[in-house]
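Predict structure. Chain length: 194.
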Amino acid sequence: MNPLVRRVAAVAVALTLIGLIACDLRLGGFRAWWDRHSLTGSIVSNLLVLAVAGLIVDDVVARRQRRDRAASVAVQGLIVFGQARRACGAILGGSAQDPPSNEAAEELRTLASMVLTASPSLFDDPAARRFLEQVERFSVSMLRVVSASSTTGLSSDSRERLTAEMSQLETTVEPLLTRIPLKDRASLEGPPED
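Prediction complete.
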């Protein structure tokens, strides 16, 4: 369910519950009607309690779990980003006339494995999901470049496109990086690629 719809529904349920309690305390006729229709009152009260538990309590628990996992999700995203950077560096590292090395293909295979492994935990977090989508697009672009230049070498257009996509990936990973302390980030990122 959409988070906005879920929150609106939770507010509506809470307001309904508060309204029913207020009417029960203030209006004698209201209380008498519910006393005469005890089965209806019981069903309505059970449904409201179920809605409160399902909408409000579940949302609070889910938000707490996302907050608790935010750092570990960011670390996984940073590790995947580091591998994407290594794969891009291996592709761009050769000369324009030489086809990409076997190292580039191996780095891409490692990146694909990392993306598959990290996807379930990255998918639940909105910022991590945007990063995951971007790294998947970037992986496909790198694979196309490696496949197209396997015999002819890397064109300047391909180099520029990969460099531009790498900068987009850096922008997308930035919200995840802010969750990790700077001292820990340097050890996880590894040395910068030239």
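Summary: The chain has two domains: 3-62, 68-189.
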